[in-house]
Amino acid sequence: MPVLVASDLDRTLIYSAAALGLTMPDLRAPRLLCVEVYESKPLSYMTETAAGLLTDLGDSAVFVPTTTRTRKQYQRINLPGPSSKYAICANGGHLLVDGVSDPDWHARVTARLADECASLAEVRDHLMKTADPLWVRKHRVAEDLFAYLVVERELLPEDWVKELAVWAENRGWTVSLQGRKIYAVPKPLTKSAAVYEVARRTGADLTLAAGDSLLDADLLLAADRGWRPGHGELADSGWTAPAISALPERGVLAGERILREFLRVASPAG
């Protein structure tokens, strides 16, 4: 039976320059591999060692990139190793099979959202009315499934995020603050549901997962084993669960450690 490895990407396996967390002297900094270019500029990185580990992992397990990114944003990433047959985008709203969204899965997801929570239009209107242009840089809707804001963190009132979370909770939505982005996501839109579907299709009898944010909690809880880095929403809140290992590493070196853990468990010799 195959081992399924479902991992969040941003700030878990890949890192922007601002999120690298290179605290060592420059001469001891790891060599980095650029894995994403946006508007002709490098955007995301992993260490060269992590790139080798990910390549090895692709030979030992079914690796499933699992991200809140839209399909277009995900397709900018050029990960090392074998191409993944499956990928999960838009926080579970799209299940890609050989790069193409599975229409039946997407239809099931959208039907569930319509039945179980407030509409995207209501949530977007609330964001537009309550978010202050002083600290909001962009309003965005992703794949007609959820909304997010790009903000100036140093100007963002902490109470506003808490009030938004309470408002959203009462309407079947959840709020996640990740770097400069505030996500408002319907509760039924989950990475875990899509991972269960991939496990069913592949016949995997062991699922491993990693993630750093509130939107990854359900993914970690759905796995047989999981890891979270020493940074991010989950670390900041002290979140843990019985099958989840809280790693001390922060920044890009956490991505390297997570891949070592995946390989240790997934490889026949592990």
Write a short abstract of this structure:
This protein is an alpha/beta fold. It contains nine helices and 15 strands. The chain has a five-stranded parallel sheet, sandwiched between helices. A four-stranded antiparallel sheet has the order 9-10-12-11.
Main attributes?
about 270 residues; alpha/beta; 4-stranded antiparallel beta sheet; about 25% strand; globular; HAD-like_sf; hydrolase activity; HAD_sf
Q: What would you say this structure looks like, in words?
A:
The chain is an alpha/beta fold. Helices cover 34% and strands 27% of the residues. The protein contains 9 helices and 15 strands. The longest helix has 15 residues, at 252-266. The chain starts with a strand and ends with a helix.
Low-confidence stretches: none
Distance between the termini: 15 Å
Beta-strand percentage range: 25-35%
Determine the fraction of residues in helical runs and give it as a percent range. 25-40%
Question: Structural class of the secondary elements?
Answer: alpha/beta
**How large is the count of helical segments?**
9
Secondary-structure element pattern, one letter each: EEEEHEHEEEHHEEHEEHEHEHEH
User: What's the gyration radius in Å?
Assistant: 18 Å
Major sheet: order of its strands? 5-1-13-14-15
Number of strands: 15
Report the biggest beta sheet as strand number plus sense, adding barrel if it closes: 5 strands, parallel
Shape: globular
Query: Multimeric state of these chains?
Result: single chain
The overall pLDDT average reads 96
Protein name: HAD family hydrolase
InterPro entries: HAD-like_sf, HAD_sf, TPP-like
GO molecular function, one term: hydrolase activity
Keywords: Hydrolase
